[in-house]
Specification:
The chain is α+β, with helices and mostly antiparallel strands. The chain has a five-stranded antiparallel β-sheet, with no helix packed on it. Strand 23 and strand 24 form a beta hairpin.
Amino acid sequence: DGYSHLSAYERKRLKNITENAKFFAALKLHESAARLNQLTAKRQSHVTKRAKPKKVEVEAARRRSMRLLRVEPLDVPQLETFAQPEAEEYPQVLVGPLPMVPEDQAENSKWTEALLGTWMRISELKTDDADRGTPDIKRYQESLSSMVLSEENIRKVVKARVCSMAIHPSESTILVAAGDKLGHVGLWNVSCGSEEGAHVFIPHNFQVNCMHFSPCNPAHLLSLSDDTLRCGDVTRAVFDEICRSEENFSCFDFLEESACSAIVGHWDGDVAVVDTRTPGMSSELSADIGFRRTRTVHVHPVHKQYFLAAGSVDVGVFDVRYLKAKGNKPLSSLTGHTKSVASAYFSPVTGSRVVTVCADDKLRIFNSKNTQVLLIFDKQSNKIKTHKNSQLKPVWAVWDPKQEHCFLVGSMAQPRQIQIFQDTGNLLHSLCNVDCLGSVCSIIVVHPSQNIVVGGNSSGRLHVF
């Protein structure tokens, strides 16, 4: 057979392959497949395909509110600006002087006039400093115990997180200013006791980092945002522009009682000297003090040539008379901070003490003359807990201008409260109200002569004790 050399299994396998091949050949599958292809081709020739519509590649532009963009109607001529920005996500404030017109002026113009009129009237009155002095601790503690917070003294004054506050020195009327992270400045006449006592102005593009009423003329409210320093002059109803820069301003303080010059800190660590009397929008001097970041600057209450700067982990005292563009060294350094320093301030009467707040959960009291650490508050053991939430502004500790040895600080302790400490570590009092205060008051401002304390929170709400 020709296959005798194969085994029985292999011969059986070969036989099966041959029989299967004959079976499939008898089926004539290749002829059936060819016939099927012909029939399919004939049917498809009679079918007409519909053209698919093309997709729209460019979507229609989304409609945006002209009021929110702060764009004037087409039939109203716009004010001329130095640079016309392209379409941006946030509305832009014009360069140069701005009219002191609140956001809601169209609806409540008479209430706005009443607010500005009150500010002008109380600024003309001179405060009497003849009998003013630092009260003893017992009297001071008694005055703290008499301070209360009521529902009518709580108001949402600005739309976003409070970044700075200032209180008018008037002894007859409580007028508070607050700046938020959107560049809004809110003015609230607390004493009027009505809903129409607060109005919002928009003099800045970025968050308002620092605010002060002028010490010599409280008709002027100076506010500092990231890119500009402005002076709100109620006598002329205008926000003047004093200084403009792209270097991101962080804070400022007056170098003299006349408020003609100021020391301005920058987020990148530099400081600048600004004179309000000189023309132009630039500073008189920009100085590199060796800091990576400058968060607060504070001028000595007695010796105005000295100022305190606080940055990343650096706190130092500098002499403004010897500042130069490069190579500046502090006269003295307040060391020991291991993390970012949120604030550092001289004590209000003599400047002999400095209180600092650090992200290492400690408050430190220094002797400013020899930079010796007098006391370190452990925030955990002393219940001066600060928050880690990025939505909240870091807590600042501020001295009471009426008391040389006492300072105030917001706390996350429950119930929420503002705590008043001596520089010896003794807790004198806690300002709280379980029913009315349920948030952290990161920013605190104290009236220079009256028993009034204002705390601001992350939602734009002010609480007046």
